[in-house]
Write a structure and sequence with these properties.
Structural class: mainly beta
Oligomer: single chain
Organism: Acer saccharum
Largest sheet: 4 strands, antiparallel
Helix content: under 10%
Protein name: VCBS repeat-containing protein
Strand content: over 45%
Order of helices and strands: EEEEEEEEEE
Strand order of the largest sheet: 4-5-6-7
Radius of gyration: 15 Å
Number of helices: 0
């Protein structure tokens, strides 16, 4: 389980917005916070709404959520997605995988087991269709 995640945006040299994820854990006796790790991701937005997580008409809906790779697993990963890519981040701050999105999402990505194999899959809703990505153990 994660302590606290601080979400920041950054501007790249190409003027696209990316996501910087910073993890903190609670300090002693619940006071202050202890920096754990920070990671720049490929989850980008070409039309970042303001404030960050509010949807505006015609805007991409970014996703940032904790989810389990297996349906009944307690170990959670982080899913961060923008308009072009989604990344899965481990609790320790490593990128486990990334996915190029077929179109910008118009709804937050859904994590569920639609293939009924016990592994969590991703459902992406866009203006031109609904897409499913399923996990495969290699």
């Amino acid at each position: 389980m994660f302590g606290t995640l601080l979400i920041e945006t950054r501007r790249s040299p190409t003027s696209e917005n990316g996501l910087k994820v910073t993890a903190y854990s609670p300090g002693t006796h619940g006071h202050d916070a202890v920096w754990q790790w920070q990671l720049l991701t490929d989850a980008t937005w070409s039309n970042l709404p303001s404030p960050l997580w509010m949807m505006e008409a015609g805007s991409v809906v970014p996703t940032l959520k904790a989810f389990s790779l297996r349906v009944h697993d307690n170990q959670q990963m982080i899913l961060a997605a923008g308009d072009q890519a989604a990344v899965v981040i481990s609790p320790g701050g490593s990128i486990l995988t990334s996915v190029d999105l077929p179109a910008p999402p118009t709804y937050a990505l859904v994590c569920d087991d639609f293939s009924n194999d016990g592994l969590t899959d991703l459902i992406i809703v866009t203006s031109n269709g609904v897409y499913g990505f399923f996990l495969v153990w290699s």
